[in-house]
Amino acid sequence: MAMNPDFENATQIPLLNYPSYRETGRRAQKGSLVYIVSTVFLIIMSLVAVALIINLQIHEHDKDLNNGKSLLPLILYPRGVAEGVSAKSSPFLSQKASYNWTNAMLSWQRTDFHFQPQKNWMNDPNGPLFYKGWYHIFYQYNPDSAVWGNITWGHAVSRDMIHWLHLPIALVPDTWHDISGVWSGSATLLPDGKIVMLYTGSTGEYVQVQNLAYPANLSDPLLLDWVKYAHNPVLVPPPGIGPKDFRDPTTAWIGLDGKWRVTIGSKVNKTGLSLVYRTEDFIHYELSDHYLHAVPGTGMWECVDFFPVSLNGPHGLDSSVNGPDVKHVLKASLDDTKVDHYAIGTYFVENDTWVPDNPHEDVGIGLKLDYGRYYASKTFYDQHKQRRILWGWINESDGETADLKKVVFDKKTRTNLIQWPVEEVESLRLRNFEFEEVVVNPGSVVPLDVGPSTQLDIFAEFEIEYLASKGIGNNNVGCGSGAVDRSGLGPFGILAIADDQLSELTPIYFHLSGTSSDAILTTSFCVDETRSSKAPDVSKLVFESEVPVLSDEKLSMRVLVDHSIIESFAQGGRTVISSRVYPTEAIFGAARLFLFNNATDINIKASLKIWQLNSAFIRPFPLDYKL
Ligand code: DQQ
């Protein structure tokens, strides 16, 4: 249904007089600081139990040392660090009184079209591939509990990457070479139709080794059974590499000499790096004399990803493609900051090294794949539709979910990637609403009547009308400390997951820096979680990015709202911010959508297309059903 309401007389509510809950919650921080703090919802009781047990253990140990008197305050440490991997759940916010969550609030938070297991903990996506008509995703999964630990490979399949069917666990920690966890890894499809899965195993002593697994039955499209190679591990940490700094093998690519290459993340002191191995059979390996790449000061590189992009063609490329029309993307998940960084550069086949196009924008010090809550991502080449798909983990400590997008080189800027939701998401579109040139005055909010707004696909374009003479504006305002920070040219955008009273809201907005006489303004794209929830025990951040806007382009954003997940794409996908919000009032039928303009010197004119979105089917596979 298309609608174009008359906004001439639309109510323009002032925005400023609404409370921020930052005082009662955690202090807002910029996304670039990446301060990942857990929030515990669906499984609050079990986590409280875990928290208490850990606290007791700390106190018991402390008491032993201090003649039975505890000196330590209650401190909780994230899981995983002792085992030699990044923190996988953050300390419980023990100093904060827990909010009185109701079942309704908690059940609203679960996503309806982002993949997640039926229950318990998930983290990194692993080994994505397309095989015999099915998309497969494996993922780091704790089948027993809602916190990181006992890591296995969960497994699910889909025909369209939207509707998913859960399958039995694919790999469990049952051998000495992965007894402390079947950690992250990648799939390689070989030209003869075989599938190779390389993954990191954590041994009983927490040494990180690389293991080989393969499907037991290649004629099974579901790839239900996996065999671990009898003589695993196939790789152990080489000299000079710490036993806990050697993990997450990539999909392999083939060189001109016919040998396969695999790269594995590591570090030496504070230098993050990626090792390259060559192999003909995935059993015997030779370590390259050179690192694929290394960047001082970036710390341990987890979940490295390495793939080609076409400079001029429309399609994604298989991992082994190279040539004059190709650049290579190197991505690393930085253990120290929990941010996925990438850079675009050139791969030199002769010595298996990679050099960034712009050394000032090198891996870990330049572009991020996502400026919000997003980690441990991995791409795969979808040979079915000739595209490269990016999977990521949108982290929080309860409803960990996975998300996927198509990724291509930005042929306009030629300096960044473009990420865009896979086209299959559009199959979920239901009712459609259109708004044209809605004028929003400085300091106002305009409601958009699209009904309940918890599952939406929003596309919005903004034009600016200057209200005063040249010279208005500010320099370097960025995202400020949220959408209440006003200046001449921002902020303006939408308020998602807001209630009618605007007592809870999440602004997704642009804020321009410079003056109206400047030929080029700097455009910040931001998401402000600070007033998303009245609950005090929730992490609420302001996420900031800078997005290139070319002279012939309007400001535009696409926003996918899926309950507690808001995924925001600026300028066709040049910049992405994933955020998670846990409102207490703006839920179910009370969740609404608004436009807002908190700039002082401009009107904005907004045109929007909005779709309500259906829920995806994500449920167990009926295994007695014959394919
Ligand atoms: N998660 C896995 C590791 C990887 C980390 C363990 C990244 O293989 O380095 O669950 O989140």
Automatic annotation (TrEMBL):
An example Gene Ontology molecular-function term: beta-fructofuranosidase activity
Transmembrane segments: 32-54
Enzyme class: hydrolase
Keyword field: Glycoprotein, Glycosidase, Hydrolase, Membrane, Transmembrane, Transmembrane helix, Vacuole, Zymogen
Subcellular location as annotated: Vacuole lumen
Pathway: Glycan biosynthesis; sucrose metabolism
Name of the featured protein: beta-fructofuranosidase
Native source organism of the sequence: Flemingia macrophylla
